[in-house]
Write a structure and sequence with these properties.
heterodimer, A: 0% strand, B: 15 helices, globular
Chain lengths: 152, 198
């Protein structure tokens, strides 16, 4: 009788542990010795600059990009230029790929990446900003709130 | 019938013990069933996951993806290879039991909706496991990956430099379009609610 209760207890604990494990299974990735190429400004300085040039793009922020990941190496933030669409597309593939992501807006021809007139001619930064709130270029002439949500 | 039951009970002495045995046998049977390779495999195939109507969208988009057979060599990744951790057998099985049970419960209680899946996409790091990707794309994780693709080189170096640190990122943090051909947002969106989104 006692033995059976002990067995039962062990089984209950085992199954709780099993289920708990399943709900909390997080991968344990090991640190690697790989580093990004050295930059002119030390990493600490780059982190500091993030206060002056914060990211307003939630996804980019989550990925924790340094200035140099987007702007390339530089000595002085003053010499940094805004990004061209070619630079965005080094990570985002090509305009077609981006347009496919918002293709649910194609029906009314208001896909911001492949719309009625501008097609793929616009610079990404005409709408998406990194350090300032984004805007929607189409809104210069149209009420875009009936077409699409605000620009991320 | 009655006499038989009585004799078992007298054999193990007492009602509590009887219940204990039943429970223990049930538990052990379920465990054996789960750990048996056949069941693990059968319930891990895309046909099994896709057999519930909830998963129809996911199966169809999957079939149009490189990983779902839309490639010249005809290989297919199973759903579980991306959606369950592949780093250890225990992680794999326990996550499988828990998330599978969740799916079954939502199925039978009818709580499922495209909208929920849609909203949940932003948590993709929680339901797509890098260890799964790595089990096939090992070279990327061990840094031996050779490619002329400079974008891939740079970004995978970035991935490795963050790995295991506090700001670690996962394969899907960048590769949001794998597995379902980048079509999920398109397929799950509810255009009536779209403009209310922030």
């Amino acid at each position: 009788m006692k033995k059976l209760l002990i067995v039962l207890g062990v089984l209950v604990i085992a199954s709780i542990a099993f289920v708990y494990e399943g709900m909390n299974a997080k991968e344990q990735s090991k640190e690697t010795a790989v580093n990004m190429p050295a930059t002119t400004l030390p990493a600490s300085k780059l982190t500091e600059l993030q206060k002056d040039y914060p990211s307003k793009n939630d996804q980019h922020k989550k990925l924790g990009f340094d200035c140099v990941t987007c702007h390339g190496d530089f000595k002085d933030p003053k010499e940094v230029l805004p990004l061209q669409k070619e630079q965005c597309l080094t990570c985002h593939g090509d305009y077609k790929k981006v347009a496919k992501r918002t293709s649910f807006l194609d029906k009314k021809e208001v896909n911001p990446h492949d719309g009625f007139h501008h097609k793929d001619q616009l610079d990404c930064a005409d709408c998406h900003r990194e350090h300032k709130p984004s805007v929607n270029y189409c809104a210069n002439c149209h009420d875009t709130k009936v077409w699409m949500k605000s620009t991320p | 019938m009655k006499t038989k039951k009585f004799s078992i009970r007298s054999y193990v002495k007492g009602k509590a013990a009887f219940i204990t045995i039943i429970l223990a046998t049930a538990f052990v049977t379920i465990m054996i069933a789960l750990f048996s390779t056949k069941v693990i495999h059968a319930t891990g195939k895309s046909e099994f996951c896709g057999s519930c109507h909830e998963m129809n969208t996911f199966k169809k988009t999957y079939e149009r993806d490189i990983h779902g057979g839309a490639n010249s060599v005809g290989f297919k990744a199973d759903c579980v290879q991306c959606h369950l951790p592949q780093d250890s057998q225990i992680d794999f099985l326990s996550t499988k039991v828990v998330s599978g049970t969740k799916e079954v419960i939502t199925h039978f209680s009818g709580q499922f909706s495209d909208e929920k899946y849609y909203q949940n996409r932003k948590n993709r790091e929680d339901f797509v496991y890098s260890s799964g990707c790595i089990s096939c794309h090992q070279d990327i994780d061990n840094g031996k990956f050779k490619t002329d693709n400079q974008k891939a080189k740079k970004m995978h170096t970035y991935y490795l430099s963050k790995k295991g640190s506090k700001q670690a990122i996962e394969c899907v943090s960048c590769h949001t379009n794998v597995g379902h051909n980048g079509e999920l947002r398109h397929k799950l969106i509810d255009m009536d609610k779209y403009l209310d989104e922030k």
